[in-house]
Amino acid sequence: MKTDYELLCKQLSALTEGVADRISNLANAAAVLYQALEDVNWAGFYILDGDALSLGPFMGRPACVRIPLGKGVCGSAALRRETLVVADVHRFPGHIACDAASRSEIVVPLIADGALYGVLDIDSPSEARFSEADRQGLEAFARTLERALAPDAAHPGRDPEAPAPEIRRRSELAVWYAGTHPIRPDAPEVRMMERLCAGDAEGVCALFSRTKQFGDALCAVDTPYGRFEGLSEIRRFASEWNARFGAERSSPLPCIQTIGGGRAALEVSVSFVRGGAVDQVPMFVIADYRAPDKLDEVRIYVPYGMIPGHTPYRKPMFPAERLSPGDPALLTGAVREYYEALHTYPAADVERILNAMSDDIVLGGYQYYDPAAHVPDGELPKERVRRAFEKMRGYIPSGVAMRYETVIDDGRTAVLEWVHIVSQRGRKEFGRIAMSGIAAYERGDDGHLCSVRILDYAWKEPEIDWSKTPVTKEEAERINLLPD
Predict the structure, then answer these.
(1) What whole-number distance in Å separates Cα of residue 370 and Cα of residue 376?
(2) What's the pTM value of the predicted model, to 2 decimals?
(3) Which tens digits make up the pLDDT trace of 191-243?
(4) Is the pLDDT of residue 153 over 80?
(5) Residues 281 and 234 in one domain
(6) Least confident window among 37-41, 47-51, 273-277
(7) I want to staple 308 with a disulfide (CB 3.0 to 4.6 A). Which of 246, 266, 270, 471 is the partner?
(8) Are 470 and 381 contained in the same domain?
(9) Could you tell me which residues are beta bridge partners of residue 253?
(10) What range defines the domain where residue 454 resides?
């Protein structure tokens, strides 16, 4: 389904040239899209009105008149000022069903005179109707329309101090997974990220107590750049959040949430405004629950290169009880099969790993999104995965193995925090050093793995600046090193 968006932009420019009335321009824009796009059942606009969006010109069935900011796909896109592409609206948390026939949706924020004006909203009765090409084309269409929304008259709810920076770098996590998984908005790890990005250090501290519920250990937040123990340190961590990432402000986009066994794993893309543009930084936020609304400890994992001045070393947070891989019996189904196959001696069993995966397996999620850098033309997803694991089997498990220390499994997704176990070969031949890492293994409806999302600093050892680490290089080399 290919649409000539360049032509649509030209048509819109001709229709709006010399027209100062915004409602007229929105009405014509809705008509252009509704007539040109195949397989859509609604195309129109919502306009910012205070703390909500009010229905504007549209084509299609009667729609919801008012949508609060942050609610549904439209409210979420408006609040975050980010395009949202939702493959299945019934799986989007808090979806507002104006038309029961709608299955997929794309929402593009509109900015006029540097402030949020509203959103462009398009629905389809088909699942996964909107592609990356549609997103890029509709964003170009929105930019054309914004030029027609002349700043000659104030619009309701306009905040002239609120800039609308362009997204410079998108995260794979946001592009692939935003709106695809249910999120519990009242969960403490979600509220922590919201308060953290809002600059509410006291609100972050309110989610913790001074010490953990049992024993006398202090509550803590562990990050790639340091561990913060006790309320005063957690307050410092929260106060420095945006500055640590070199940002003026930030906003979170929760993408995937896995809760099980008293812990939660939140996979979240945080939009940091840096130098007038937005960089989306994907991260894992692991929360140890004290109670349903309180936290004992939080561990945050961020890809290397996305924190200014950060060096790629993460000291193991868990002292390994024994220097061997974790017990596969604690895992189930395809996750166990994958883990056992990965740790088959003397080299990982690639065929067995592939047999645990679906044909459309997605590998990745924790890099900046580059549509040109992923799967070559004609290459099947499993072929790409095969190439990745053929490389890994050269050193896993003979050089380095992963010993998982926590398991969060909700029946669909299993998230494992691990520490490396390094052999003498891994140390001498590959220069490997034990560090902490994390991965999510998601099962599809048939039980096979449909997504594997890994975040660690593997093979970054040569780039470590040992003047910035909590231990010396010699000490790091001795951690979890197997004897001769």
Answers:
(1) 12
(2) 0.70
(3) 999 899 888 999 999 999 999 999 999 999 999 999 999 999 999 999 999 99
(4) no
(5) yes
(6) 47-51
(7) 246
(8) yes
(9) 269
(10) 328-478
